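Lab notebook: predicted structure, single chain.

Context: the supervisor wants predicted structures on file for every construct in the current expression panel, including those that have not yet been purified. This is the next one on the list. No modifications to the sequence; it matches the entry in the shared construct table.
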Amino acid sequence: MTFLKNLRMAGLMLASLAMHQVAFASNNPAMDAQINHLSEDWARIRFRVPDKDQQFTQFDALSHQAAAIAAKYPTYAEPLLWQGIITSEEARTASMFQRMGYATKSRDMLEKARKIDAKAANGGVPMSLGVLYYRVPGFPIGFGNVTKAKAFLLAALAQDPNGLDANYFYGDFLNLQGQTGPAKSYLLKALQAPSDPNRPIWDAGRRAEVRALIGKLGK
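Prediction complete. Output recorded below exactly as produced.
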């Protein structure tokens, strides 16, 4: 019973896990075009497909595409970053008994990307790791770690101080630590980020999440 209770707790945490749309631009236009396709499909599934089972099925198919791109460009961090992001979505939408397995795979992919280029995608690698470390439960259920999460999220903010995602996720992190005042300031700063007409689904979906979180602060 205790084991099942712990798995349910992990599920509640991972149910809120939502990785981000990251800007990217490398010195390989062909690879960038393939990653752009991944990011567009990720946003469509994440924000436009309401059924969680359908989300899992579509993310699973997309993860195979991401794996193929990562295998094709093994010296670049960006494909691994997106493979990790999509795998984290599988963790969010998988069955209770599968969630931690997918989350661990996502962390390992992101750590591999960090070893290749910690500054890839304008802070996307440390931000993705930071989100995992604060959203996944800690020991003995999972590998969550507040100290690591904060360090990664601050590293991402240092690279993209005015970014929508960087400020949103740090604000979300602070809110979960009970720091609602500072959290609100980062969330409001997130909304001040310029809109991105090239990524309208992500832009609208993320801003809706920011506004929803602001509305919940202090309640």
